[in-house]
Design goal:
- With about 290 residues, the protein is mainly alpha-helical.
- The chain folds into 2 domains: about 100 residues; about 140 residues.
- Helix content is about 45%, strand content about 0%.
- The chain has 11 helices and no strands.
- The termini are close together.
- About 40% of the residues are buried.
Length: about 290
């Protein structure tokens, strides 16, 4: 058995060692203890200080609803790799749109698109950027917001909304097949981690200042927890996930377990799981 890796923060290193000493490593919490523990972590990490070093800082640079939607969409879809790089590339992209993304997307001319020739983030290239701009213009022209394409009235979760959005986003006849890899869908069994993170930003509303809560027609109870690497690892240690593989069904399992703690807002626990994984290095702990 490999040795356990202690969290770096001294405060939580002590907490971790106490849990270990009491034979209460996270996986051994009772349901009541886990509920209390996660609620404490939500309070700790769901705060304005979280914004600066997270991709959510990109849409926080804007105040107009449509700009927040578009900047947030790009920030979420480009959110893989190191966070500092994600933020830098997203700000670069917004600058290419004159830091006025809605106006640019709706009113650009063909000649305005030349500036994107050198833009690239990992596998997201010029072809993808140009199609995103084209598709977003088409969607905003129809409803003035992306929210309408995610609606899943009467459904327990947002799953059907995610599927519908994917179909609508790629409804243009000339859509490039390669770009589909950047917009996940439950139909392909993806966890849709970046897309459901975007929905968390747009839908959740509290007084903490991180999530925007500008979409009022989707219930927070329908949201699915983003199941990224860190969340997945921490959730498994806390016995919130039992499924071996990580896919859409896993995201549903995690969210169903979180819903037991707060049926109306299960995805608030994303702050706790992600914060424990990133800030306190719990995702590195091996039992």
């Amino acid at each position: 058995m490999r040795p356990l890796i202690r969290p770096k923060n001294p405060k939580y290193r002590i907490e971790f060692l106490n849990l270990l000493k009491q034979s209460k490593l996270p996986r051994r919490f009772t349901s009541e203890e886990l509920n209390e523990f996660l609620n404490q972590k939500v309070e700790q990490f769901n705060r304005p200080g979280f914004i600066e070093n997270d991709p959510v800082s990109v849409p926080h640079s804007f105040s107009r609803k449509a700009d927040i939607e578009i900047a947030g969409f790009f920030a979420a879809m480009l959110a893989w790799g190191q966070r500092v790089t994600i933020i830098r590339k997203c700000r670069e992209l917004m600058a290419l749109m004159d830091n006025d993304p809605y106006c640019f997307i709706m009113n650009h001319k063909a000649s305005d698109l030349k500036v994107f020739g050198a833009f690239k983030h990992r596998t997201f290239n010029l072809t993808d950027t140009l199609y995103f701009i084209q598709a977003l213009k088409a969607l905003f022209s129809r409803h003035g917001t992306l929210e309408s394409f995610f609606l899943a009235p009467g459904e327990e979760t947002i799953e059907q909304g995610l599927i519908r959005f994917h179909h609508e986003f790629f409804s243009l006849e000339d859509h490039p097949h390669r770009t589909k890899k950047h917009i996940p869908t439950p139909e392909r069994k993806s966890t849709c981690k970046r897309l459901v993170m975007y929905l968390r930003w747009m839908v959740r509303s509290d007084n903490k200042g991180v999530d925007f809560g500008i979409w009022k027609n989707i219930s927070p109870s329908q949201l699915i927890c983003p199941c990224d690497l860190h969340v997945d690892r921490v959730a498994r240690k806390l016995r919130l996930i039992k499924r071996k593989q990580t896919d859409w069904t896993t995201a549903l399992e995690l969210t169903a377990n979180l819903r037991k703690f707060d049926p109306g807002d299960p995805v608030k626990y994303d702050f706790a799981l992600f914060g424990l994984g990133i800030e306190e290095s719990w995702s590195k702990i091996r039992a």
